[in-house]
Amino acid sequence: MKRILIIKLGYSETLDSMLSLTTSLGDVLRTTVILHFFKNDRVDWLVDEQASPLLAGNKFISTVWSYNPAVFDALRMISYDTVINFEKMPEICRFASSLHTKRFIGFLYNGSGYEVRGPGTRGAATRLIKMSSDLALKRQNRDCWQKILCAAIGKKWAGEGYVLGYEPKSSIECDVGFNWATSSKWMNKSWPMSHWKKLEKLLGGHYSVSWQRGLNSLCEYIDWINSCRIIVTSDSLGLHLCLALGKNVIALFGPTSVREVHMYKTGIALSPDSPYDCVPCCKPVCAKEKQCMEYITPERVYENVRKRLSPPDTA
Q1: Within 10 A of 9 (CB to CB), how many other CB atoms are there?
Q2: Distance CA 236, CA 243 (A)
Q3: For the whole model, what pTM was predicted?
Q4: Which pLDDT value is given to residue 308?
Q5: At 306, is the secondary structure helix, strand, or coil?
Q6: Those residues with Cβ within 8 angstroms of residue 224's Cβ, 6 or more apart along the chain or in another chain
Q7: What residues contact residue 119 under an 8 Å CB cut-off, 6+ apart?
Q8: What is the mean pLDDT of residues 249-258?
Q9: How far apart are CA 297 and CA 289, in angstroms?
């Protein structure tokens, strides 16, 4: 049995250039797809404390290490067969390069820029840097995130899904869940509140609606998602939790690439019918007076809800 360390805190999105101490929970969850390739090994995972509930109880992880300076000293005492670093923060890269390991995969920082090491072709590894720094390449990409990530560690993705450790304790309570909130890092993903309210009116009298709960508790949030028959959401953590749970979902995409997200046959993605040629711009801030997300109409979402749910009870 080999010993593996995965470093994915969520401070930097793997295929994005943005660095932030606001944890990208969705990016942490998406990275769990690589666990399928190490299920016979002992896996440690270094993660930000806010994201640790996503990994707690994961059947493929032996130890979840919550990030703090004291943890660095403990991890330096361990000899690993493989260290995988998917963080681009310079201090995390420097720490990763200081660990005892036979094989290193992922991001390193050499003082003037980033480089990526990988066991597969050099192109598969360096694609991570190119995708996160070249917006034109990111917009042109036709491969899903899972395929790109797995190729970077020398593996071929064959439809493997996310691995969520937490098991929801809820049962179905309502028809449609509105996952309306978005991360402060990507407010450009937000669907207008006026559209949410219009959708609620369209659904009224036909389907029961629940507005997002668990904003301050990750476990409560997962339980809420699980309690809805279908979730309407932007490209956010809620979408990836739905995919991990096999939940019926309608995902609204605008500034981010729909092609990067594999829907696992459990949901559909809607993109704007807009006059813009910049969609997806792959930018967190929009310079347009009317954002592209406004061009996804409530009526269009309503029709897709009806198609994916059984007809409402009209008795």
Answers
A1: 24
A2: 11
A3: 0.90
A4: 94
A5: helix
A6: 170, 177, 210, 212, 213, 214
A7: 103, 105, 153, 154
A8: 94
A9: 17
Contacts of 284 (CB under 8 A, 6+ apart): 18, 185, 186, 187, 188, 255
70 pLDDT band (50/70/90 cuts)?
Answer: confident
Length of the chain: 315
Question: For 105-141, how does the pLDDT look when each residue is reduced to its tens digit (9 = 90+)?
Answer: 998 887 777 778 877 555 666 677 666 666 777 777 7
Q: Are 272 and 252 in contact (CB under 8 A)?
A: no
| pLDDT mean across residues, the chain | 89
CA 257 to CA 29: how far, in whole Å? Answer: 18
Helix (H) or strand (E) holding 266: none
Concatenating the DSSP letter of every residue in 5-66 gives: EEE--SSB-TTS--B-SS--HHHHHHHGGGGGGGTTSEEEEEE-GGGHHHHTT-TT-SEEEE
pLDDT score of 103 more than 90: yes
